Amino acid sequence: MSENHERLVIIGAGSAGLTAAIYAARANLQPVVIAGLQPGGQLTITTDVENYPGFADVVQGPWLMEQMQAQAEKVGTRMVYDLVTALDSSSRPFTLTLDSGKQMTADSVILATGAQARWLGLDSEQKFNGRGVSACATCDGFFFRQQNVAVVGGGNTAVEEALYLANICDSVTLIHRRDSLRAEQIMQDRLLKHPKISVRWNRQVAEVLGDERGVTGLRLSASDNGPDEQIEVHGLFVAIGHDPATTAFCDAVELDDEGYITVAAGTARTNIDGIFAAGDCVDKIYRQAVTAAGMGCMAALDAERWLGMQDS
Hints:
With 312 residues, the protein is an alpha/beta fold. Helices cover 25% and strands 28% of the residues. Strands 1, 2, 5, 6, 7, 8 and 19 form a seven-stranded mixed sheet that branches. It has a five-stranded parallel sheet with strand order 10-17-11-12-13. A three-stranded antiparallel sheet has the order 14-15-16. Helix 1 packs parallel to helix 7 (289-311). The longest helix is centred in the last third of the chain and has 23 residues, at 289-311. The radius of gyration is 21 Å and the shape is elongated. It starts with a strand and ends with a helix.
């Protein structure tokens, strides 16, 4: 047995991974969390958090994740600041290869590596990220109530975000680089009939405009060689997809055609006994910190039960 052998290794230190760690540590499993490139997950790049239960006032995303990690460590979690580059699931104990060159073995593993939003890649988009630019209408739409906003994208996610924002905002402009949407027809019908939503076809965001207070507008370029134009908005929601952080596990567990980890319905169990998954690397629908935390709890309880069966 490797001297770096652990009972339970949790890969990822966002809401899912840290919640799994809290539950696992309280069950005396002495979990190790491998924090990866972005300890704290996506909430570390989120400023105001208003929808996480338990806080009457707005809290800061980085502070919330610091508190989760402190709680996990207080009940017995050990943090390792490294990156998993490979997971061998062909035999137990499982073998993890780390970016530092070290190897670690584990009786059980929870994958909680999350997903990242795809961005447009503009300097101005990065400049105003968190000050008017967002990739989550459910998270941030409330901050733009009774204001004008724009959504970029043409798939189901973009249409859903536009419809959600139309319930909160004065107006929503959907910007799409083509002349037709990819979203399901029933969703398109709802969008095109909505009195608060307009569509700018054959347009791309060339620049996010703003001042010290945040976003004030967008400069749009035409993909059909038309003239540039400017529109006045206070928020831009980028809805062009997410990429789950699962590349290192493509040969270890079953992934779907978009790279998300597949789990048995109503559980955190992957197709490999002893490996569990939770959070945004599994969930392509809700993508909320609170749902990731709930799945992290499920993964820890599933792992605890599975380990208990191995011992009996």
